[in-house]
Design a protein that fits this description.
heterodimer; A: 305 residues; alpha+beta; Phosphorylase Kinase, domain 1; 2 domains; six-stranded antiparallel beta sheet; 9 helices; 14% strand; rod-shaped; B: 189 residues; mainly alpha; Rna Polymerase Sigma Factor, Chain: A; Arc Repressor Mutant, subunit A; 10 helices
Chain lengths: 305, 189
């Protein structure tokens, strides 16, 4: 390898800058310095010309390297055959968002479905009370225009439920209890403890019936209120508004064509004491006064979803 | 909306295909064989298409494609060449010397310079091509080849020098002896 010994260190220094000069990568000051030297140095100027010539020759020769005409079409075809599927074009973040959204939709959908199912179940259970009210009180008109005497009503209710009469009368102060009896709807074996009262321009029924496997659903969006720990439910069935509740053994209903809110309020007043009476020593005549005064206790672990 | 981010192949082609000639030019000068260069360029486009969703519109598509080209090229080279001969050309002592500039013919034929270029080791050749043919900046070359800026400068200097030497050798093999140029050597400014 032959190494030149330049007479001037300046030439050596400038030649080290020529590559960057050709690429226009020098600072303005350095470029000025190189140009000034080239003006006065024929050898370095010749060296730069030589390098420029090679560079230009390389550019010219490379420009001849053209892609074959079919290459563009070949790429075009391969791109189309490699077209990603519908989901492949998504970014990972998009996937995460999509999955999160899907999860939200699924959870919301599941909750909505459960709510719908719960609502349907509430209506089905409360319909029991509405049917008895419609059949016995409204269509069959099984009540007198003048209220039957309490003794007669207690007798109709029998010793098991006679104690409930004063409870109902007390909790329905703006109503007059016309009738109380045990009844059935046609085609059914279920027995209803039925109190028929008149007030506020309409007929209202307070109905109790033993649970035969029915159960009102759990879910705070389904409950209309929980006075004294008794969950109340409401529904509109066959043009009647009904508020209902359940005890360990019984289902209770307050039914009329008054507003739903009023039904819930009346049920809220009746439910705790009726529950205590029914789930305690039952509504026996002797036990009734004590039961009316008893405080309503929270009743849990009896309802299934 | 999620579904609006799906890229159409037409969008990709509009952004990437204008650089086909540049990519092919560099590929053919780097791998030397036309069929391999064609395959390489096709692979570059396929890979670019697959990751086009990561490309930011408005940024330098050409530089991005070259980055993919060199990534694939280096991958191929690593597979084919077990032992690099680069060290023989890249010793610091060698770079510090200012070598005698070989005489370069006044008239340089295309075939001669391409033949000379083919003899320049790949790591130097690709920097020369990036700087002199594609006219990328030092910074762009460093980013594309994933090497430090100083390495770009030293490889370019060394690569150009080797090209001139090879070119002079090619010219001499044809009996071309540019004596007039030799006479100027050794003169100071």
């Amino acid at each position: 390898m032959k190494v030149l010994n330049f007479d001037s260190k300046q030439c050596e220094r400038i030649r080290r800058q020529l590559d960057a000069y050709l690429c226009n990568e020098l600072l303005v000051e350095t470029t000025g310095e190189v140009l000034k030297h080239l003006e006065s140095c024929e050898v370095c100027s010749h060296e730069l010309g030589s390098r420029q010539r090679v560079r230009e020759a390389l550019q010219k020769a490379a420009a001849r390297q053209l892609p074959p005409a079919y290459l563009r079409e070949a790429i075009h075809q391969r791109l189309r055959s490699a077209q990603p599927g519908f989901f492949e074009g998504f970014r990972s973040t998009t996937w995460a968002l999509a999955l999160a959204s899907l999860a939200v939709v699924l959870v919301a959908g599941q909750q909505w479905l459960r709510w719908q199912q719960g609502k349907q179940l509430v209506t089905t259970v409360l319909t029991l009370g509405v049917f008895d009210h419609l059949h016995c009180a409204i269509r069959s008109h099984n009540y007198p225009e003048v209220a039957n005497p309490p003794d007669q009503l207690r007798k109709k209710l029998g010793p098991q439920y006679a104690g409930l009469l004063p409870v109902v009368r007390e909790k329905l102060p703006s109503f007059q209890v016309l009738e109380a009896h045990i009844c059935q709807v046609p085609g059914g074996q279920r027995k209803y403890v039925h109190f028929i009262a008149r007030g506020q321009g309409t007929i209202l029924s307070v109905i109790l019936t033993k649970r035969e496997g029915e159960s009102l659903p759990v879910g705070r969006f389904l409950v209309a209120g929980s006075p004294s720990g008794v969950d109340l439910y409401k529904a509109k069935v066959e043009g009647m508004n009904v508020a209902g509740f359940e005890t360990n053994q019984y289902l209770g209903f307050v039914v009329s064509d008054l507003g739903l809110h009023e039904m819930v309020q009346l049920a809220a007043s009746l439910a705790p004491v009726l529950r205590n009476a029914l789930d305690g020593s039952a509504g026996t005549e002797n036990a009734a006064p004590a039961l009316v005064l008893a405080s309503a206790s929270v009743d849990s672990n009896r309802r299934v979803e | 909306m999620f579904f609006c981010s799906k890229t159409r192949v037409e969008d990709f082609e509009a952004a990437a295909l204008p650089h086909l000639a540049d990519l092919y030019r560099s590929a053919s000068l780097l791998v030397q064989k036309s069929p391999e260069a064609e395959d390489l360029v096709q692979e570059v486009y396929l890979e670019a298409w697959k990751s086009f969703h990561r490309f930011e519109p408005g940024t330098n598509c050409r530089a991005w494609l070259f980055k993919i080209l060199f990534h694939r090229l280096h991958h191929l080279r690593r597979r084919l060449i077990q032992a690099s001969k680069l060290e023989a050309f890249a010793s610091p002592a060698d770079q510090d010397n200012v070598m005698a500039e070989p005489p370069v013919p006044q008239e340089i034929r295309d075939d001669d310079i391409l033949l000379a270029l083919a003899k320049v080791p790949p790591d130097f050749r690709e920097v020369v091509l990036m700087a002199d043919v594609q006219e990328f900046s030092y910074k762009e070359i460093a980013e594309t080849l994933k090497i430090p800026l100083g390495t770009v400068m030293s490889r370019l200097s060394r690569g150009r020098g080797l090209l001139r030497r090879e070119l002079a050798g090619v010219a001499e093999s044809y009996g071309i002896r540019p004596g007039s140029e030799r006479k100027r050597e050794g003169h100071s400014g």
